[in-house]
Design brief:
The protein is 65% helix and 11% strand. By secondary structure, it is mainly alpha-helical. It folds into two domains: 53 residues, Arc Repressor Mutant, subunit A (Orthogonal Bundle); 55 residues, no CATH class. It is elongated and about 55 Å long.
Length: 113
């Protein structure tokens, strides 16, 4: 999705070329087909190839992916997500990142009142 978002459109070959450790061409095509079936991408035919285009804005795609991750792995618990993130990266968080998280939590508290 990131590759298609960055360029606005891409063929399977272009996606494959831009992946750092690419799978097979067939795997890339299968993934793109799945993204079309799920409504995240659309395509148009140009000659013998399909050109894929996003159907949603990047922010909307991120929210959708986050909702899916939350439901699938964290039983819809934001607390479990935050705990997992902190467990995985606490040593690497900067003071600025921690301050930003604290401010977001405080903002959520204020909005919840």
């Amino acid at each position: 999705m990131d590759i298609v978002f960055e360029s606005g459109s891409a063929t399977a070959a272009e996606v494959l070329d831009r992946l750092p450790d690419p799978p097979s061409y067939s795997a890339v095509r299968a993934l793109l087909r799945t993204l079309v079936e799920k409504g995240h991408l659309t395509h148009r035919q140009e000659g013998m190839k399909y050109v894929y285009l996003p159907t949603v804005a990047p922010a909307e795609a991120k929210q959708s992916a986050l909702r899916h991750l939350l439901q699938t792995f964290f039983h819809n618990s934001p607390t479990q997500v935050v705990a997992a993130l902190l467990d995985a990266s606490a040593a690497g968080l900067t003071q600025e990142e921690l301050d930003r998280m604290t401010a977001l939590i405080e903002q959520a508290r204020q909005q919840g009142r």
